[in-house]
Amino acid sequence: MNKTLGLDVGTKTIGVAISDSLGWTAQGLTTLKINSEKDDFKIEELVKIIEKENVSTVVVGLPKHMNNSVGESGERSIYFSEKLKERFPSIKIELWDERLSTMAAERTLLEADLSRKKRSKVIDKMAAVFILQGYLDRFN
To answer: Enzyme class, one word (predicted)?
Structure first.
């Protein structure tokens, strides 16, 4: 069975989560350091993950404002997803409304009583888990 990858794209990092082979649960995988200003999105590192994990679908979080408009962060996610589509024409790339996923991840980490330093290391990966789990729950 093919897996689904979930991505939370920021300016400095991309949180990466992966589904189990049945497509029921999302687990945090890694956080990639990027430089969006220099157009460095670590596509080749994602290639390795996609090939190793037999990924058939990539879900990119699309941050929207509460009024449903797309701002600078959303534009970055759209641009990033287009770059992925160029690199992976045979893989399904989907944008997924991720409103509040980072806040939900932050709340979960606060409830787990993690220090600010520890939270900052895992927040993007955790946000990717929330994005991917929301996507997977749509089908289950």
So the answer is: hydrolase
